[in-house]
TrEMBL record:
Residues 127-460 form the Aminoacyl-transfer RNA synthetases class-II family profile domain. Keywords: Aminoacyl-tRNA synthetase, ATP-binding, Ligase, Nucleotide-binding, Protein biosynthesis. Coiled coil: none annotated. One of its GO terms (molecular function) is asparagine-tRNA ligase activity. Gene3D superfamilies: Bira Bifunctional Protein, Domain 2, Nucleic acid-binding proteins. This is Aminoacyl-transfer RNA synthetases class-II family profile domain-containing protein. InterPro entries: Aa-tRNA-synt_II (IPR004364), aa-tRNA-synth_II (IPR006195), aa-tRNA-synth_II/BPL/LPL (IPR045864), Asp/Asn-tRNA-synth_IIb (IPR002312), NA-bd_OB-fold (IPR012340). One of its GO terms (cellular component) is mitochondrion. It comes from the Eukaryota.
Amino acid sequence: MSILLPRVRGALSRTTPSRFSLSPAFPRASISTIPTNVSGLLDLKPSEAVENVKIDGYVRSVRAQKLHHFVAIGDGSSLKPLQAVVPADQAEGLTIGAAVRLDGSWVPSQGRHQSHELQVSRAAVLGPSDAKFIQTHTPILTASDCEGAGEVFHILTENERRASAADPARPFFRRQVYTTVSSQLHLEALAQALGNVWTLSPTFRAEQSDTPRHLSEFYMLEAELSFTDSQSAVMDLLENMLKRVVSDLADSKVAHELLNPFVDRSPDLAPAEQVAQRWSGLNQDKWPRITYTEAVRLLEAADMPFTHKPSWGKDLHTEHEKYIAIKVGKGYSPVFVTDYPRDIKPFYMKAGETDHGISSSRGTAECFDLLVPEFCEIAGGSMREHRLENLVESMRARGLNPTSSEDPTKNLQQPDNNLGWYLDLRRWGCPPHGGFGLGFDRLMCYLTGVQTIHDTAAFPRWYGRCDC
């Protein structure tokens, strides 16, 4: 943060600018020693107003009133922020975490909690920040397999690896530990304390897939929304976020290089026209949405030689997703596929309330995948099952705790059950909530035209390859 206090004029005027006059008129001061940070400005306590103050910093808090917003600005040089009084018509975009530049006068304050404050005449947002979500950090090592597909890397110490039945090693942890396949379960816990949260962290999958779309170690952008019972709201958030990314990048130098067909390109990149079409598709007014059941009917009616025959109750394969993206998204727009069969989705997803024309014995989950043309799935999300009894039933149905009991939650509370802590989240004040995970490396691959996801990582790891 930098603070600029140019030499000010003498006390020739006895009034503050007519545009903004919250405090009484102050004489103008001439300051020879110029503070360079918030701490220095807070130490500056002139009896007269200092004009033409210019300050860069981060918004710590905002109190909005009809005519003015009281904004706390900090830069790390002081635990105490300075108070800026911003006219309501200048306060757009002043959200917590935003990087801002404020112009105004440093004047004695009428408030009780600070001696001086910055009366702002102009506010500019240098870097916006969405105040509705809080960034969090989730663990890499976990005892919980979120997806339940068994595609996890087990953690063993060298002593444990060398141990035998005749000479067993003492376990480092008291239970089996894995590298995380998703931050979702821990993110749900944080959401109950903090509200809407997000994280961008490494994720590990032991998938035996050697394709241009798969990595064993990659980054996942995940978000959880508290107090929402609408799957549409989760999809809207994801759609609007990606549209904002493309919109904000559109005028950047990198975008011009990627989208300009006359710029020399590496042969490893897709043609500029193809990349430009991807960007344009992401900016479509409303991305189409289709249920899994509708998608299967579309695939069954298609006159296509699919390697895997489409059938209700089975996962959609890459060839199916590509066809849906072409047919529904016109090969241009991203497509949401919603309400997959419950039996092929993880235990934590909320059961669907409508059957979409299928028999009641074949239930669905309130979930979705986001498909993009050419690249297929880049994100997935769902409503989470927030009701304890329903979650226990879902876990038992998947064999997570096959032991029967008069108390359906008894065995799931035992210390040796790795998901007992997750169930506890449902026991006290768990609101309806949902979230999504976005493959960050896949998004980078799609936006840049890089042909293989391996080239988006400095040190890529995939099936059979971890060479350094």
